[in-house]
Amino acid sequence: MVTTGLRPRRSAVLRLLVVALALAGALLGGLGGAAPASAHAALTGSTPAQGSVADRAPEQVTLTFSEGVAMGDDSIRVLDPQGKRVDDEKLRNLSSDRVVKYGAGLPSGLRDGTYTVAWQAVSADSHPVSGAFTFSIGAPSKTSAPVPQQEAGGGLVGALYGIARYLAYAGFVLLAGGAAFVVACRPAAALVRSVQRLVVYGWALLTGTTVVMLLLRTPYTGSGDLADVFDLGGLQQVLITKPGAALVSRLLLLAAAALFVAVLFGAFARAHQPAGADEPEETGEPGEVAERGQRGEADERGAADAEDAAEEAGAADTAEEARRRKDLTFGLGFGGVIVATGLAATWAMAEHASTGLQPAVAMPVDVLHLLAVAAWLGGLAALVVSLYWGPPVERAAVRRFSRIAFGSVVVLVATGLYQSWRQVGTWHALTDTAYGRLLLIKVALVVVLVGIAWLSRQWTGRLAEVPAGEVAAAELRAAEDAEQEAGREAEQDAAKAAGQEERQAEEEEEEREAEKATVGASATAATTATTAAAAIARPAPKSGPAPKSGSSPVSDHSTSAPHDTPAADDGPSADDDAPDPARAAQLARQQAAVRTARTKRQRDADPERLGLRRSVLAEAAVAVVVLVVTTVLTATEPARTEAAVKATSGGQSAEAGRPQTLTIPFDTGGPDGKGTARVRLAPGSSGRANTLQLRITDPSGKVRDVPEVKVSFTQKAKKLGPLSVTTRHTGKGQWRASGIQLPVPGKWRLSLVVRTSDIDQVTEIKNVKIGS
Fold this sequence. Notes:
Elements: H1 10-30, E1 43-47, E2 53-54, E3 60-65, E4 69-70, E5 76-79, E6 91-93, E7 100-105, E8 113-123, E9 128-137, H2 155-185, H3 193-221, H4 232-239, H5 242-264, H6 267-271, H7 286-298, H8 303-348, H9 359-389, H10 395-423, H11 429-432, H12 434-462, H13 468-486, H14 488-537, H15 551-564, H16 574-577, H17 581-604, H18 607-634, H19 639-648, E10 660-667, E11 674-682, E12 690-697, E13 708-715, E14 720-725, E15 728-731, E16 734-740, E17 746-755, E18 761-770
Parallel strand pairs: 2-9
Antiparallel strand pairs: 1-3, 3-7, 4-8, 5-8, 6-7, 8-9, 10-11, 11-12, 12-16, 13-14, 13-17, 15-16, 17-18
Region (Disordered): 275-320, 477-606, 641-672
Main location: membrane
Domain CopC: 40-137
């Protein structure tokens, strides 16, 4: 098959890419609410429990996680009501074979009040996780330390790190897939400038993003301050962690990949250069050419023997060249697979596959999944640039890529099914969790991608093969155009230099002409003066016509002028025969433009090839969105982990299903209408009877009574409520209700009505999460 594409239809390319990026942005924006689920290690329990009130101060605070985490001495901080740190600042590792637990010791004699526990860790799959909760000793205090609002891995640093992760995936796909396309599908593409740029840009993109991610690890897993990228101490700590080691290993493998790319577009490209591309033309002076012709005629008698020897030598050279190409292809293929596998392993050893269920199986499967993605999508990108910015592409090359793409899809389906079972676990988790919904979106996009690929195969089957000679000629023309483009600047510089020399020569010629004109004028003036003096000394004739004044001098001067000034018919000068570099460069550009226009007309007149280019471009656009969704998936808590968190916490989530404490300020608008209501609901579960405690205080914090309070619960999602709660007054500013049954878990709306006089009252609404 041959499809041309020296100049693409840029408007169509840009339109499809803009649509792809817009869809990717919409997906990211729509999934913004799922960002808090990005923590892959979840807090499953704590002692003391969140919102609990202890009779006496505990000896330590312990945290239990769903999977392995990395923590330091500053990972758990306990703050008193004034915000002062009171723990011993020493991390205690209380983990066992099946339980991941860490703690921090507390001093004896802590005063009564509300204490805040803020914690931060890095999960086993390299993602940071953080949180905070409160507990009280004796009774809740009026004040407590502020809870951190920004989660670990969020803010500007988190956004930059997420972008770098996506670009790293894209760079790997372009590098590995583009190189595989050249080696396995179309070796002649090693000579195509657009394919070379694609692979080299992929290597540069992956290298740059790896360095950026390495520098961002310190603020990403720590303070969140972008200035900490220059913290060398933090960088040293990152290097000894598993994610840091994976990033350093990736950089070392990229050094080997640079050597691979140099050989691919160096020796491998020269070995597949079309015949005649580097044959020198016969040049020389006319005498030398004639002499060579005479020598050739003298050797004509031995031409038959020479032809036989040349045929044998040509056959030997052809065999040697074929063997060299085979060795280069095998070496690059073997080395490329090793390097690509190593690069893919740097993700597998630090992402989802390295933790959780069956890591020994999951890591090799993840490597195969990444390699299949790179072979399919990266090869697709190489095919796109070949079709639009390269010489004609053979149908055999497209068929080879089609077979590789089909094999990649088979591998993706097999590995994807295993990964889905490992990360999701149950069917209902596909719709009940953010990870499951993202996975469904990815599957739908892959189905669309496969459908477009099927259309591309149909277009490929309609194409007719062209003779190899035409393909080689087109590749040779493309190589010549590339050489002309590379040397265009040098030609322009030479043209400028030649123009300067020409102007200098013209100026010198004008100076010589001016000097000669001056000398000729002086000689004419002298001759005229001598003739006039002689005429005065000689007496005039008395009869006969008077001679014409100045006839002799003028005649003499006109006769001698050709000998005194340069003649115009001496023939053209040597400078007139010199070629004009600027004119030659202009002619070369015009010829290239004519060839480009002719090729474009032929391309646009072929509906089959036009259809193939459009379908392949549509594949690439959908592939961009697939890559975005894949990146978001790697930063989302797996559904199986979320289910494990609920199971280990008795069917309650880490946030819901625990005692809930709400602080509700109010203002009825009348005299003494301002105050604060503090509501505590325990155990915060839909499976058991709940108890509600309510306390009213004035703006100074003193407990006060009000004529009436009312409490009700409503759940809009299930259309339940309002469910009124009967409260009883137990003391000054104190109310209590027991036996509160909330039928379903989820987010409920608590409505609090406070009346401070006969006519002044207000209703405040707060959300509260109830566990199952």
